[in-house]
Amino acid sequence: MALRTGDHSQAATNGLKEKVLTLDTMNPCVQKVEYAVRGPIVLRALELEQELRQGVKKPFTEVIRANIGDAQAMGQTPITFLRQVLALCVHPDLLNSPDFPDDAKRRAERILQACGGHSLGAYSISSGTQLIREDVARYIERRDGGIPADPNNIFLSTGASDAIVTLLKLLVAGEGRTRTGVLIPIPQYPLYSAALAELNAVQVDYYLDEERAWALDVAELRRALLQARDHCRPRALCIINPGNPTGQVQTRECIEAVIRFAFEEGLFLLADEVYQDNVYAEGSQFYSFKKVLTEMGPPYTARQELASFHSVSKGYMGECGFRGGYVEVVNMDAAVQQQMQKLRSVRLCPPTPGQVLLDVAVSPPAPSDPSFAQFQAERRAVLAELAAKAKLTEQVFNEAPGIRCNPVQGAMYSFPRVQLPPRAVQRAQELGLAPDMFFCLRLLEETGICVVPGSGFGQREGTYHFRMTILPPMEKLRPLLETLSQFHAKFTREYS
Amino acid sequence: MALRTGDHSQAATNGLKEKVLTLDTMNPCVQKVEYAVRGPIVLRALELEQELRQGVKKPFTEVIRANIGDAQAMGQTPITFLRQVLALCVHPDLLNSPDFPDDAKRRAERILQACGGHSLGAYSISSGTQLIREDVARYIERRDGGIPADPNNIFLSTGASDAIVTLLKLLVAGEGRTRTGVLIPIPQYPLYSAALAELNAVQVDYYLDEERAWALDVAELRRALLQARDHCRPRALCIINPGNPTGQVQTRECIEAVIRFAFEEGLFLLADEVYQDNVYAEGSQFYSFKKVLTEMGPPYTARQELASFHSVSKGYMGECGFRGGYVEVVNMDAAVQQQMQKLRSVRLCPPTPGQVLLDVAVSPPAPSDPSFAQFQAERRAVLAELAAKAKLTEQVFNEAPGIRCNPVQGAMYSFPRVQLPPRAVQRAQELGLAPDMFFCLRLLEETGICVVPGSGFGQREGTYHFRMTILPPMEKLRPLLETLSQFHAKFTREYS
Ligand SMILES: Cc1ncc(COP(=O)(O)O)c(C=O)c1O
Ligand SMILES: Cc1ncc(COP(=O)(O)O)c(C=O)c1O
To answer: Under CATH, what is the fold of the domain A31-75+376-494?
Structure first.
């Protein structure tokens, strides 16, 4: 021991010391993490913006960030009532101001009453303010046609991301062939692959069916599961509905089939339902996994374990920066739920402003409230514009040769398939890039349009896609879609 | 495989299915996590509050939560300027209101300019808004007498907790005897033990010296390190200064000795400096590890790896609920720092309101600003009252036989040692409780005072303590301290 200590001191004196924390010594799981939504293409976009600001000449005048589902960054205005209530909570002197409607004031007072020291500055209890969890429970009951929800099963979170990672964390166990496997859709939202890598769990891919508008097929689930059982212990199944990046909205029948499958195979269901308010296509409707599960009756109702996630980042709210969200757990083992509670208490509490926005979003003004009309009008306007942009996106892309886009039934993204000429694929390989990354980088450099290559979400071998949000304002979206289509045509010619 | 599937279905039909996620199958590391600050004693406090509300008769009329460092929950009023700026950012219509001072408006406009879509509702970049990191860097430079700070080394976080866990996560590697060991003080803030348990790293205890006002002694660090090297690979050293739960403020000489030790032994330094504004004792002063490290010159300055944490939850701000904080990394390997950036991007961004409060806290009004006088007065009042309460706590406890309390030089807690009679220890053991947990539970039941047993933070075998915050308002604190002292006397008589 003394010797080892001596060695160290020696090295120190000689100034030969290596860093303690290097790529060689750091957590190897963290190194495996990838997160395309903010990956190299976004770093390049940042650089380009800086160059533009410095006056460097480019073939475009602004970078358009269609890479991330961030509505307000793209110019969507916040819903007035949400911000009024929050401003009143932040600065209660405003409760005396004539500039705020009565219902916003009542709402803020009610929330502050429920906070420690009547202030947002106090930590809330770890699962989130009791009152707000009660409001969330009532929201879920309304949404699901009266099926009861228990506030004790609701945990508020720092965005949905935080809750998703917590559930995955609980599920991770075992080593080698008994390591926890988690089924995730391909294409997926890369939080899933990133969290599984970090937790050293096994990612089990099931493919959505592009030919059937990205439908989820139980036969494919079964294939993935059986194959995975050879090398890990699959214990959970993640579903994203409405889908990110794929924009599909699952049918009730599909959800029933998935629940039956999960039940038979002993899989914990993780239903990522953060886009539940974002359904645009005619004939499409959002069904929550909890509702379908409950209506299927025994043995599913009282047995199938489920966690459902929601967020203030999406929907008509688009309040990403506030990091509000929740998870409802259904049929979770009581002792495990206590462990979850304990685990969450270590981080103290979710941010209170996000809790406030969530509260308002789940209990919007009633018809008799002074803010009702404005709230409804603003909400409808946001959702109607998103629906129009979803339609436009599908339409313009499908007019372009070599681009094929499934209907954007919901969520905030299109995930069109692009044909890339073999010479482009070859060129990309020479550069050590995924072919669609090569395409997206070239697109960015020549048009300023920032989209994320399909390889960041996963796709069938040999197919190429990109994800583009439908969030740019209408007047920008059409030219954007056209520029993108034209760039694809030019790129195709260049490499033919 | 087919058979296994069949088995499952069979079990399903018979309704014999076990849950997927149970104590037996869940993440074993999560089960090992403990977090006393919100443990069983706090759950009991919640129950008692509910009983009081339901009219159940108790020997007290209210539960006093002296268990958690949550100033506003204990009635501290927020600093007006912080909340004004935040309200303006949340609801920019207020920029037209005559009720807000000009400097608050300018500040809010400046922050909004730096936000995506000029709104707090957009995700910020993952490391936090550039402008705010620049302001943090300037704050650090002022604090440290001009030593440069680089915004690129600053990562904003969801409270300091989030940043601390991130750093620990990066450091975790190895298995068996090569597992990462992390030295933490005993007594400690239990986030550290909880995070290490969750990450499956080895907790290496070094004891603070109660006889010397909880000073940190390098000989004890060395003892702990050498002993740990037999079974793990110690790679990091955590220091909490000013201390939680112990309230000591380290001397400059002590910090120098710690840095020399860390350097010689190849340890990454984690300096938890969230109480840097909370120094009360005459003769005590806060020195940041970064300042001391830099002033020590080579080889330390350009080599010793360090992360320093700060938070808006503590200081004079007490804005716990907003979850704002940051870490500055010093001499971190560039590739590791990129990995850290990537890891943090998966969670998208720290909550924007916490970022705003942090910005105001690190760049308060200047003497020429209209809000300067009020801001300074409010800040001083908070810190002066805390100082008075620190003094009072030490004084009253030390008048009580069987209680010994070190000076509360800084932070927000006293951690007095209590003598417990052997028969009380025995009784506790019969009940399966730590003796100080038994004491604290009885205290809670009979007086409504909620404090945390020393066993939740760690203490030398055979010694007993509790942690009590100094946060209750002055008019409550004195009777509280007296009630507690009297209860201890009574408890001692009862078991003698
Ligand atoms: C499918 C899905 N789940 C979860 C999230 C996480 O969102 P947040 O953490 O902002 O709530 C996102 C964000 O884009 C998402 O698309
Ligand atoms: C020593 C210490 N570090 C870190 C924290 C975390 O605080 P937060 O996450 O609220 O910034 C606390 C909270 O009490 C603390 O006492």
So the answer is: Aspartate Aminotransferase, domain 1 (3.90.1150)
